[in-house]
Amino acid sequence: MCHPPLMQRDDALARSAESRPEDLSAIFGGDDIAPSRLGDAVIERLTQAILDGRLKPGDALPSEGRIAARFGISKPVAREALRELAAMGVIQVQQGKASRVRAIDSGPLARFYRFAIGNSRQGMLDAVELRRMLEPQIARVAAERRTQTDIADFQAILARMKASLGRIDAWMEADLAFHNRLAVMTHNALIVLQSKGLEPVVAQMMKRFNARAERRMPDWDATFRRHEKVVDAIVAGDAAAAEAAMREHFEAAEAAIAELYGSNPASDRDHREDQHA
Prior knowledge:
Elements: H1 6-17, H2 24-28, H3 38-51, H4 64-71, H5 75-87, E1 91-92, E2 100-101, H6 107-117, H7 121-145, H8 148-163, H9 168-185, H10 189-210, H11 217-236, H12 239-252, H13 254-261, H14 265-276
Helix pairs in contact: 3-5, 4-5, 6-10, 7-9, 7-10, 7-11, 7-12, 8-9, 8-11, 9-10, 11-12
């Protein structure tokens, strides 16, 4: 059986994805782009079309050839622009298929945090500090906006946590679900993306925190009760109590965090300045 060359098949697929006539000027704008920053300009035009809704998640992009012709650039420049957008998580590029707009998810943010924090001590301390700033306020907003479905799901997660006491892997899975559910209960898409983006770093912290040799059942019980206090406040719709319970949760973990990572020099500096003010 004879197959057409790969390049011919790719061209056929690209033409098929563009079967309907369209005015690319309506999508990307009518002005020419300056030659000094060709790739950046193409990326800007493409992202603006997505942000404006002219291109929606699932929509196929024109081929590299048509993009290149539209902007008066070379195909390699168009190809590189598409690769950068794919690396940003904005589009999906597959060999032999039309590139398509992706729905926004937390993947690029998670990769950013993993590289920004790395495995360094200071990176982990900074991540802990970031969570202490964010999560009490997230708990407050969750208490104000939670629905009956949210409450049922949150209580089910708490039951999973109770059943997982002393079992690190099962507890971590339930604990991650607990904090992600808090974000979901804010009904704020950016907070949810932020929470999911931090998840790999949070999982790394939890693994080290829960694997401490001296962690005994009374310690597990105390940790569970702190989570339970957050749940009770959110079920009651008490925003101030939810925020206070989450602050208490993080404050109680300070000793273990200091044991694992030491103290945060930035926090110590601010604390000393406050004492001498």
